[in-house]
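Q: Sequence in, structure out?
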Amino acid sequence: MLKVQATPTEPIAGEFTLNVNDLKRKLKEKVEEVREKLPPIVLMKDLHPKYFVVRDDEIHKVSAAICDENGLRYAKLLYSTDKTSWKEAESSIKTLADTDILNFEVNSQIYEIKGTVALQKAGTVVFYKFVAEDEDGNKAESPTEVYFVVDDESKLKVVVVDTWVKLWLLKINAEK
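A: Exactly. Output:
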Protein backbone atom coordinates (compact mmCIF):
# COMPACT_ATOMS: atom_id res chain seq x y z
CA MET A 1 0.00 0.00 0.00
CA LEU A 2 1.34 3.40 -1.00
CA LYS A 3 0.27 6.64 0.67
CA VAL A 4 0.92 10.01 -0.87
CA GLN A 5 0.56 13.12 1.23
CA ALA A 6 1.39 16.77 0.63
CA THR A 7 4.43 18.27 2.40
CA PRO A 8 3.72 20.47 5.43
CA THR A 9 4.58 23.64 3.46
CA GLU A 10 1.79 22.92 0.95
CA PRO A 11 -1.88 22.97 1.86
CA ILE A 12 -3.22 19.49 2.53
CA ALA A 13 -5.82 18.76 -0.10
CA GLY A 14 -6.42 15.15 0.77
CA GLU A 15 -4.87 11.74 1.01
CA PHE A 16 -4.42 9.39 -1.94
CA THR A 17 -4.19 5.65 -1.32
CA LEU A 18 -3.03 3.19 -3.96
CA ASN A 19 -3.30 -0.57 -3.49
CA VAL A 20 -1.17 -2.31 -6.11
CA ASN A 21 -2.82 -5.71 -5.57
CA ASP A 22 -6.27 -4.21 -6.20
CA LEU A 23 -4.95 -2.62 -9.40
CA LYS A 24 -3.51 -5.93 -10.59
CA ARG A 25 -6.78 -7.73 -9.87
CA LYS A 26 -8.88 -5.09 -11.68
CA LEU A 27 -6.52 -5.08 -14.65
CA LYS A 28 -6.70 -8.87 -14.88
CA GLU A 29 -10.52 -8.70 -14.81
CA LYS A 30 -10.57 -6.07 -17.60
CA VAL A 31 -8.15 -8.11 -19.74
CA GLU A 32 -10.37 -11.17 -19.27
CA GLU A 33 -13.47 -9.14 -20.27
CA VAL A 34 -11.75 -8.01 -23.47
CA ARG A 35 -10.37 -11.49 -24.23
CA GLU A 36 -13.83 -13.02 -23.93
CA LYS A 37 -15.10 -10.61 -26.62
CA LEU A 38 -12.37 -11.43 -29.14
CA PRO A 39 -13.62 -13.62 -32.00
CA PRO A 40 -11.60 -16.47 -33.48
CA ILE A 41 -9.12 -15.65 -36.22
CA VAL A 42 -9.84 -17.45 -39.50
CA LEU A 43 -7.05 -17.66 -42.08
CA MET A 44 -7.70 -19.35 -45.41
CA LYS A 45 -4.78 -21.21 -46.93
CA ASP A 46 -5.71 -20.83 -50.61
CA LEU A 47 -7.96 -17.87 -51.29
CA HIS A 48 -9.23 -19.14 -54.63
CA PRO A 49 -8.42 -21.82 -57.18
CA LYS A 50 -6.01 -21.07 -60.00
CA TYR A 51 -7.66 -18.79 -62.56
CA PHE A 52 -10.86 -18.87 -60.43
CA VAL A 53 -11.89 -22.04 -62.30
CA VAL A 54 -12.89 -25.57 -61.19
CA ARG A 55 -13.89 -28.35 -63.61
CA ASP A 56 -17.44 -29.68 -63.39
CA ASP A 57 -16.15 -33.19 -62.65
CA GLU A 58 -14.02 -32.24 -59.64
CA ILE A 59 -14.77 -31.26 -56.09
CA HIS A 60 -13.08 -28.15 -54.76
CA LYS A 61 -10.99 -28.71 -51.62
CA VAL A 62 -10.16 -25.79 -49.33
CA SER A 63 -8.61 -25.39 -45.91
CA ALA A 64 -8.17 -22.78 -43.21
CA ALA A 65 -6.41 -22.30 -39.90
CA ILE A 66 -8.49 -21.03 -36.99
CA CYS A 67 -6.97 -19.63 -33.83
CA ASP A 68 -8.80 -19.01 -30.54
CA GLU A 69 -7.70 -18.83 -26.94
CA ASN A 70 -10.60 -20.76 -25.38
CA GLY A 71 -11.52 -23.23 -28.09
CA LEU A 72 -14.22 -23.59 -30.72
CA ARG A 73 -17.87 -24.57 -30.53
CA TYR A 74 -17.90 -25.14 -34.27
CA ALA A 75 -16.20 -24.35 -37.54
CA LYS A 76 -17.64 -25.14 -40.94
CA LEU A 77 -17.37 -24.47 -44.64
CA LEU A 78 -20.34 -22.82 -46.33
CA TYR A 79 -20.99 -22.39 -50.04
CA SER A 80 -23.62 -20.66 -52.16
CA THR A 81 -24.50 -20.40 -55.83
CA ASP A 82 -26.59 -17.26 -55.40
CA LYS A 83 -24.71 -15.40 -52.62
CA THR A 84 -27.82 -15.40 -50.40
CA SER A 85 -28.66 -18.99 -49.39
CA TRP A 86 -25.67 -20.75 -47.88
CA LYS A 87 -25.30 -24.53 -47.62
CA GLU A 88 -22.97 -26.41 -45.32
CA ALA A 89 -20.26 -28.33 -47.15
CA GLU A 90 -18.55 -31.48 -45.96
CA SER A 91 -15.71 -30.52 -43.62
CA SER A 92 -13.48 -31.86 -40.86
CA ILE A 93 -11.57 -30.12 -38.11
CA LYS A 94 -8.53 -31.13 -36.11
CA THR A 95 -6.44 -29.45 -33.44
CA LEU A 96 -2.88 -28.67 -34.45
CA ALA A 97 -0.46 -29.68 -31.72
CA ASP A 98 2.57 -27.89 -33.13
CA THR A 99 2.06 -24.15 -32.62
CA ASP A 100 5.60 -23.32 -33.73
CA ILE A 101 4.22 -22.67 -37.20
CA LEU A 102 3.70 -19.06 -36.14
CA ASN A 103 7.30 -18.68 -34.92
CA PHE A 104 6.24 -17.28 -31.59
CA GLU A 105 4.72 -18.63 -28.44
CA VAL A 106 0.93 -18.46 -28.40
CA ASN A 107 -1.54 -19.31 -25.68
CA SER A 108 -4.24 -20.07 -28.22
CA GLN A 109 -5.52 -23.28 -29.67
CA ILE A 110 -4.96 -23.66 -33.39
CA TYR A 111 -7.24 -25.74 -35.56
CA GLU A 112 -7.12 -26.83 -39.16
CA ILE A 113 -10.40 -27.17 -40.99
CA LYS A 114 -10.61 -28.86 -44.38
CA GLY A 115 -13.67 -28.93 -46.56
CA THR A 116 -14.91 -29.88 -49.99
CA VAL A 117 -17.53 -28.08 -52.04
CA ALA A 118 -19.81 -30.56 -53.77
CA LEU A 119 -19.77 -31.07 -57.53
CA GLN A 120 -21.49 -28.27 -59.40
CA LYS A 121 -22.71 -28.13 -62.99
CA ALA A 122 -20.80 -26.17 -65.62
CA GLY A 123 -21.72 -22.49 -65.76
CA THR A 124 -22.25 -22.18 -62.01
CA VAL A 125 -20.58 -19.45 -59.97
CA VAL A 126 -19.76 -20.74 -56.48
CA PHE A 127 -19.11 -18.55 -53.44
CA TYR A 128 -17.57 -20.09 -50.32
CA LYS A 129 -16.34 -19.12 -46.86
CA PHE A 130 -15.46 -20.59 -43.47
CA VAL A 131 -17.42 -19.64 -40.35
CA ALA A 132 -16.48 -20.31 -36.74
CA GLU A 133 -17.79 -19.68 -33.24
CA ASP A 134 -15.67 -19.90 -30.11
CA GLU A 135 -16.68 -21.15 -26.65
CA ASP A 136 -17.43 -17.55 -25.58
CA GLY A 137 -20.04 -17.17 -28.36
CA ASN A 138 -17.95 -14.89 -30.59
CA LYS A 139 -18.38 -15.53 -34.31
CA ALA A 140 -15.98 -14.95 -37.19
CA GLU A 141 -15.82 -15.74 -40.85
CA SER A 142 -13.20 -15.84 -43.54
CA PRO A 143 -13.32 -13.68 -46.62
CA THR A 144 -15.85 -14.86 -49.20
CA GLU A 145 -14.18 -16.40 -52.22
CA VAL A 146 -15.49 -17.41 -55.62
CA TYR A 147 -14.84 -19.75 -58.53
CA PHE A 148 -16.46 -20.55 -61.85
CA VAL A 149 -17.37 -24.10 -62.82
CA VAL A 150 -16.39 -25.05 -66.38
CA ASP A 151 -16.98 -28.02 -68.67
CA ASP A 152 -13.43 -29.17 -69.42
CA GLU A 153 -14.65 -31.70 -72.01
CA SER A 154 -16.31 -29.08 -74.19
CA LYS A 155 -14.47 -27.84 -77.27
CA LEU A 156 -15.67 -24.35 -76.40
CA LYS A 157 -13.26 -22.75 -73.96
CA VAL A 158 -13.98 -19.69 -71.86
CA VAL A 159 -11.27 -17.53 -70.39
CA VAL A 160 -12.01 -15.12 -67.57
CA VAL A 161 -9.94 -12.05 -68.39
CA ASP A 162 -11.87 -9.65 -66.22
CA THR A 163 -9.26 -8.00 -64.02
CA TRP A 164 -12.04 -6.75 -61.78
CA VAL A 165 -12.79 -10.17 -60.25
CA LYS A 166 -10.36 -9.64 -57.38
CA LEU A 167 -11.64 -6.09 -56.87
CA TRP A 168 -15.20 -7.43 -56.86
CA LEU A 169 -14.24 -9.92 -54.11
CA LEU A 170 -12.58 -7.14 -52.11
CA LYS A 171 -15.80 -5.11 -52.34
CA ILE A 172 -17.92 -8.09 -51.21
CA ASN A 173 -15.64 -8.70 -48.22
CA ALA A 174 -15.31 -5.01 -47.32
CA GLU A 175 -19.08 -4.80 -46.95
CA LYS A 176 -18.86 -7.36 -44.13
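The two ends are 49 Å apart (CA to CA).
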